[in-house]
Each structure stands twice: as structure tokens, then as C-alpha cells.
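Researcher: Here's the sequence for the chain we discussed earlier.
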Amino acid sequence: MSTNLAVPEDVGANVSTLSKAAKYERWHTLVVRGREFYVHCQTTVDNAALQEAVECFQAAARISSEGIGDVPYTFNLLGLTMKIRFEQCGDPADLNDCITKHGEALELTPPGHSNRSFSLMNLANALLLRFREVGDRADLDDCITKHGEVLELRPPGDPERCSSLMNLAGALSVRFGHVGDRADLDDCIAKHREALELTPPGHPYRAVGLMNFATALKTRFEQVGDHADLNDCLTKYGEALELAPPGHPNRSYALMNLANALLLRFHRVGDRADLDDCITKHGEVLELRPPGHPDRSSSLMNLGGALLARFGHVRDRADLDDCIAKYGEALELTPPGNSTRSSNLRSLALAVSTSARSIVNVKPTYVLLSSLFACNTYLYSSAIDLSSQM
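Model: Thanks. This is the structure I predict for it:
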């Protein structure tokens, strides 16, 4: 095992002959040790430590089933650990067990219980995870209902209200994406707005609150077209970027979001300054994702798309050549079988087609020739795909 955490030697021992006090001591030891393994596994993929955590909490749950120790707390800890194991190993049985344990914990924390909000939140988060995996609308609706009940238990002034607002807003956003009910999106934005008011400058949740709020505003602009939403979105993304200065691990993500929103406003308003700023920011993102970075391909595609938009606006040949070069590099990073290869090929084909229509008597270059080849390959593969569907 890759951790120095100690494991109780008799984690699975029969404790039926112990006194009540000894059983409580045993339960406490198991919970403490299991929690140490759990914390370790939150940031480290360590299957051995994860298994030890599960076994510690399972043994503690057997003792707590006799009414010893904090029973719902034990079940919640076991459920949280099963959730981590599902996220790391992918066994659906772990996720179902997680939901079962959180459900049992909730039954043991009826209305009025001091830990009811904790049990509700854990179950809601697990249901949302299962919805993302399975797609059962009932899980999503149940998740939102439970997050709503958590929020009711955390009224204005409660220190946990902000996180509850964010959780509910996130679930509403997911349901909007699944169902398309505008009421969910408006409610999501209202919750994000209130959460942001509870995270003043310097608050540890402010950056993520700004990002989430801006993204929801951008979605509503795309649905409704109110420019106030788009401008507010850009303001929030800009503030989030200020909270991610050079060297910050989230800077590339903040830059990318702001760049994409600037491009959206350019397409709607036509202000060249937005487009230039978008390209500058996508260029900085690319610098932060050097060769070998897992997100370099998407950054190349984003920058290429912005360059193609500026070529269409300004007709500067250098932008089109740079776009084709970026699309070409992105294509090299998406081999056959990659989920984004088809869209990357399509984008490259369109850029090359634009190039062919915009110039005459241009000396062939390696990039242009390879792009034309990729274009032909895409068109050929598309024809094969169409013929297979007939």
C-alpha cells in the first residue's frame, strides 16, 4: 500500500462479545482510521487505501447497526467512500451502494435532526452523479428536490447557504440542458446571483461562483438574446480572470471562457476589438497548453476558429493560413477513433475550401497541400459514412 496510514489489525473481527464501551471504542477507532484513508483517497488514486477505507467503514457500520456510535454519520461516510470508488473504478454497483447508504442515513435523520441537511446533500449529489451516468430523469428530479430541502434548512445567514445555492443551481442547470425548461435556467441564474452576493472579494468560492454565474448567463443569452445577459457574462468572466493571474492553475480555463464569450459578442455585435481580444486570449491559452498537454487540441481548434472569423471579417490572408496551420496541428493530435476527429476534419476541410476560393496562383505549401489532402480524406470518409446509412 502506498500510504503510511495504519490499519486496525482486526478490522473484520467479531465484536459481539465486547462490552458496550469497548464496542464504542472500536467503532470510534474504525471511523477515525477510515476517515484518514478517505481523506487520502480524495486527492490520490490509491486502490489499496480506498479498499481499507471501505472495510473500516463497513466494520464501523456493523457496530453502529447495534445503536452504538453515530449511525447516520457512519452510513454517510461509507456512502461517500463508495462514491469515490465508483469515480475511480467505474463499477455501477458502488454507485448504487453509495445511494443506498445515503438513503439509509437520511431515514435516520428525520426532519428536525441536526444532521439532516448533510444526509440530504450527500444523497442529492450521488443522485446527480447517477443521472449523469444513466440518464434517468427521476434521479435528477429527486436530486433537485433534495437540494431544495437542504436550502430550506440553511436560511439566510447560515454559513453553508452559499454552497447549497451553488449545488441547487448546478442541478437546475443540468435539468435545463436535459429538458430545456426556461424556468429552470432562470431559477439557476437567480440562485447563482444570490450565491455570488454571499462570496465577496476574497471569499474562497468567489472565482467558481463567478464562472458558474457567467456560464449560466451566456446560456440564457444564447436562448433569449438579451445583450444585458451577454455583457454581464463578460464582466463576470473578466473578474474571474483577474482572480487567476499568471501562474494560477485555473488561468487557462478562465481565459478560454472569456475568449469564447468575446467571440460570441463579436458574432452578434461585430466589434473588431472583441475579436482581436478573443484571439489574443486564445493565443495565451495555447501557450499555457504546450505540446503534450491533454487540452492542446481543443485550444488549437478554438484559436483556429477565431482566426477564421477574423479572416472572414478583415480578409487578411495570414489569419487564414494560421487558422489552417492550427487546425492541421489539432488534427494530428486526434488520431482515428478520437471522438473529436470528425469535427476537426470538418473544420479543416471548410478552412481549406475557404482558402481555395480566396486565392489564385498561390504557390503550394506543405501546410496547404496536407490540408487539401485532409479535406479530401474528410469528404471521402463522409461519403462512406453516408453510403453506409442508405
